[in-house]
Amino acid sequence: MKQRINGSEAIIRSIIEEGIDTIFGYPGGAIMPVYDALYDHGEKLKHILTRHEQGAIHAAQGYARVSGKTSVCFATSGPGATNLLTGITDAMLDSTPVVCITGQVASPLLGTDAFQESDILGMSTPVTKWNYQITDVNEIPEVMAKAFYIASSGRPGPVLIDLAKDVQFAMLDFEYKKCNSIRSYMPYLPIDEKQVEAAAEAINKAKKPFLLFGQGVLFSQAEEELKQLVEKADIPAAWTLLGVSALPTNHPLNVGMLGMHGNYGPNIKTNECDLLIAVGMRFDDRVTGKVAAYAPQAKVIHIEVDPAEINKIIPAHYPVLGDAKKVLSKLIPLVNENKHTDWIQEFKDAYETEFEKVIKNDIYRNNGKISMGEVVRVASEKTNGDAICVTDVGQQQMFAARYFQFKHTRSMVTSGGLGTMGFGLPAAVGAQFGRPDRTVVTFIGDGGFQMTMQELGTIAQENIPVKIIILNNNFLGMVRQWQDLFFEKRYSFTNISGPDFVKLAEAFGIPAQRVISNSELEGAISEMVNHNGPYLLEVMVEKEDNVFPMVPAGASVSDILLEKPTT
Amino acid sequence: MKQEYIITAYSENHIGLLNRITIVFTRRKVNIESLTVSESAHKGISKFTIVVIVTEEQVKKIVQQIDKQVEVLKAFYHTNDEMIYQEIALYKVATDDLTESDKIETLIRKHNARILEITKEYTVIEKTGHKEDTQEFFNDLNQFRVMQFIRSGRIAITKSPIERLSEFLKERDEILSETD
Ligand SMILES: Cc1ncc(C[n+]2csc(CCOP(=O)(O)OP(=O)(O)O)c2C)c(N)n1
Ligand SMILES: [Mg+2]
Questions:
Q1: Which DSSP state fits A176?
Q2: Is any ligand 1 atom within 6 A of the Cβ of residue A470?
Q3: Torsion-angle region of residue B178: left (phi > 0), alpha (psi -120 to 50) or beta?
Q4: Same-domain check for residues A394 and A528
Q5: pLDDT of A551
Q6: For chain A, does the N or the C end have fewer beta carbons within 10 angstroms?
């Protein structure tokens, strides 16, 4: 039955109809009517007031990534909307389903350079999956339903809805119907059985198959199918930065991370396998290194839901278009049980080499100093592999990805495609709301922390029990590492100071501690994990450690370095 | 090898979509040689005809990216010899030049052009054809000083007997009814 309500109320009811219970946002003039409507729905919709719109969208991203649900964020027109852009771009590159609702000046003022008018539709076009400006109140239910459908289906992504202020006051006869199809948009094409059969045959023939999995596995909830496939055909499997946790870290066929700072075996074996099976991943350049020297010897199966990814970077001999779960379910019965013992042993040997040259010293530093890798190892152990790991960007991100152990899916939140410093703290806020039942541990560099540290205010106000670990090397460490390796140690503007982070946290009413020597590390992390409520730990780490292995930018994955070259 | 390709895309007629489509080109630093957008035979569905000079690999990727846009129904690419295509050009000359001798008239006949309007001051001539043809006519006519000249974007139609959009829409409806 239709109900006569105003546009703002219609927005709120649409969001409730979509099963959303949390919104991240920041009010302002052009979205005030919506906030006014929100005021009466406190029992159904929780609103988290962040300290900056960038914080709101990163929190929404964190929420979506761990919960698998679409998340919502609100901002006002002009500066509120433009402050969202970094997060929208991040969500676009990492395929995160977020619906952004921005206020806009009243429709008669559009295009007049009115106060706080910005062409957010134009600005967000290249970085949204879809966007739309509502200037007719009657469009609200249909457009909102479309927004949620588009954001979450197929390859997910951010959607922005711009709401003219007069529309927020205008009345309509409201009735909500969820959207489940759009003529011009086919998020899931029917699976071509022939493609699946061809892929199965290639797998059955392969002597050295190697599977690469990405975030697509998480989107389609294909974790179980992935496990069945690799176990049945005995295929070593490696993950992209965003695919991590789709297969438990300690699974015997999980051979580690791909790419620039990934594991040694997965990189060199890429150029030795006879078949690459890519599932829900897009061959980012951080994964492939030099494309011309990427697996030229191998046949490639590419299982992917987004047709535009097929043949975009790496040509697929056996493309299989479709949702990973559906494709894998069809594929598994066609694949023979198999054993690739010798081939898998090669990965184990590569791991041994890497362990001796890199890992041992990364995670057990026996000189009293503290390495980032060791902090990650200890935090992972103290949370029994049950925690959600959130990271910022830089060296600490790579150490976290390399050494955090995952038992459960959707347990890593990190900015992959855009590499957005400042992502970590607000993303942790969202992740905690997305999974209130789980411990959220976040690793942030001293540089990145200073980009969005105002979100400590949100954490304090809402008493969000996130565990924040600042890995402080007093450097923009990852950039310093490149200066060390490729710019003759000319440390141009990578030296960075910071406030007293412990006092800073305390000023927000958040308990905090600083760790200076290795002997205090375990105790301090235990204390943090056992603390009921938010906690900040500043760990003073080795200033000039580098992350290895490393595939230098533009080099082949075979040329992965285990240490700094001596020449 | 770079060559001329004609990209055709069918889309819902929505504000902002042209921006989404041109971004596909600008992001890849591909110049649009010509662009025409108009309603197709199907009500509410627009047809884009875009001419670019790129390699086949590039055009394939561009078409994939256009196709990916939510409001695009389907995008295709063709080489010039797979399509019949035309452009239209308008030329304005001084009416005195036209009446002074029969030279302009001869040119109009030779190039299969036609006169649209004659006033005391000026005459507007129209010619359709490929770019080379309309250009050649311009060069010839310009001996008499062309006061104004304008050429449209390209429109094109496939040589194959089937209308691909109707076929495509039928297929889509089938898929949609199956998934319901
Ligand atoms: C917004 C933004 N600006 C700049 C960069 C480039 N960048 C990548 S890593 C990095 C250094 C990060 O330093 P810090 O946060 O201290 O982390 P560390 O590498 O030391 O662990 C910089 C500046 C970026 N990724 N994002
Ligand atoms: Mg640092």
A1: -
A2: no
A3: alpha
A4: yes
A5: 97
A6: C
A12 vs A17: CA distance, rounded Å = 9
A17-57 per-position pLDDT tens digit: 999 999 999 999 999 999 999 999 999 999 999 999 999 99
Q: Please choose, from the candidates A405, A481, A478, the residue with its C-alpha nearest in 3D space to the C-alpha of residue A441.
A: A405
Structure tokens at A478: 């990852």
- Of the candidates A285, A233, A230, the one whose C-alpha atom is nearest the C-alpha of residue A258 is A285
Options 3.40.50.720, 3.30.70.100, 3.30.70.1150, 3.40.640.10; CATH for B86-151 is 3.30.70.1150
Fold topology of B3-83+155-179: Alpha-Beta Plaits (3.30.70)
Neighbours of B57 (CB within 10 A): 10
For chain A, give the mean pLDDT.
97
- The reply to whether A532 falls in a domain is yes
Tell me which residue has tokens 């559009």: A110
- Say if A565 falls within a structural domain: no
Is residue A110 located within the same domain as residue A76? yes
Say if A257 falls within a structural domain: yes
A158 domain-assigned: yes
- Buried b / exposed e over A278-287, threshold 16 CB at 10 Å, is bbbbbbbebb
Pocket test for ligand 1, best of A421, A472, A501 (most atoms within 8 A of CB): A421
Q: Which amino acid is at A433?
A: F
Check pLDDT > 60 for residue A242. yes
Q: What angle separates helix A395-403 from helix A477-486, to the nearest 10 degrees?
A: 100
Cβ of A316 below 6 Å from ligand 1: no
What residue spans define the domains of chain B? Answer: 3-83+155-179, 86-151
Domain residue limits at A204? 193-346
Q: What is this model's ipTM?
A: 0.93
Give the pLDDT mean for A93-119. 97
Residue A26 makes CB contacts below 8 A (sequence gap 6+) with A49, A50, A52, A53, A56, A74, A75, A76, A80
For chain A, give the percent of residues with pLDDT over 70. Answer: 100
Q: Are A287 and A247 members of one domain? A: yes
- The reply to whether A432 and A533 lie within a common domain is yes
CA atoms within 13 A on the CB side of A107: 13
Question: Quick one: pLDDT band at residue A566, thresholds 50, 70, 90?
Answer: confident
Nearest to A147 by CA among A102, A93, A109: A102
Q: How far apart are CA B158 and CA A228, in angstroms?
A: 47
Q: Is A395 helix (H, G, I), strand (E, B) or coil?
A: helix
| Nearest residue by C-alpha to atom 23 in ligand 1 | A476
Q: How many structural domains comprise chain A?
A: 3
Q: Fold identical between B3-83+155-179 and B86-151?
A: yes
- Chain centre to alpha carbon of residue A78: 27
**pLDDT tier at B54, thresholds 50, 70, 90:** very high
Q: Which of A52, A371, A393 to mutate to test the pocket of ligand 1 (most atoms within 8 A of CB)?
A: A393
Here the CATH number for the domain that contains residue A273 is 3.40.50.1220
Let me know whether A55 and A13 are in one domain. Answer: yes
Q: Å from A302 to nearest chain B CA?
A: 16
Contacts of A180 in chain B (CB under 8 A): 180
pTM (two decimals) = 0.96
Residue B97, pLDDT score:
93
The CA-CA-CA angle for residues A285, A289, A290, to 5°, reads 110
Q: Are residues A526 and A467 in the same domain?
A: yes
